[in-house]
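SAMPLE LOG
Freezer: B-3
Tube label: C17
Construct: single chain, 91 aa
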Amino acid sequence: MKTIGIIPARFQSIRFPGKPLALLEDKPMIQWVYQGVQASKLFDTVLIATDHEHIASTALAFGANVVMTSSEHPSGTDRIREALEIYEGQT
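STRUCTURE (predicted):
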């Protein structure tokens, strides 16, 4: 059985809009998170689930696997569920 890690990344956060793209030192936050999850060696595949093209293009530029999801999700858990369904439909 393969394990999949899914990182939800929403642009329109109420507390910190654009947070996944905020630069920390020389990288966007989403890149730090993605690389940290990959380095853990806990997952066979790591995906970023987002509803925003800028997050998707940034993630693709550093080599991440990206799944585009609806912008209507009330929580990250809902975004993860949709991303998993999309990913499983593609494999």
